């Protein structure tokens, strides 16, 4: 039973070729590109409104130096939201349930924020490792603790996204399996379970959007510390 539950998180292959690449390129095909009628296109208008609102929210706490990251942060947000929501469709694969993919997204971006801080303001960047007013005997211990907390940030980003999506998918599969099994034995309980599954699906749609937002928001906060 445990193996069948986690089979949905295995990367699918076709003729020995992993389909993860196709799953990662699909979101960019779904979004319409601007045309000569982009002002009259309702879908593009809605898309542009969402992007503008999100970019405003992300860049509001950042100074002008961090505004150079607007394109990559917004693109990453849309990319993650699309992958997470597409993974809720039946018989699909969610790439963001793979810890390796999430770490591949989190680690380079986190490292870029650290390198920017080391290049632009090395004193302030290193100053984060030692809080002001620390007693002298605690300085070595706090430096080690702050260094570990700094290095664990990309791991926390990847694990948070993976764990939340994996838990949601498991809950949906367990609830749907229970509804199917109970349908012949206790129809009323099966109907209640199906209603619960519907509500859980709505919750997972919200979680898919919120987790993508949190992922990028934390990256922007790391960037704010170093620009």
From TrEMBL:
It catalyses: H(+)(in) = H(+)(out). This is ATP synthase subunit a. It comes from the Eukaryota. The chain crosses the membrane at residues 12-31, 69-89, 101-118, 138-156, 177-199, 205-223. Its main location: mitochondrion. GO terms for cellular component: mitochondrial inner membrane; proton-transporting ATP synthase complex. PROSITE patterns: ATPASE_A. It is found in: Mitochondrion inner membrane.
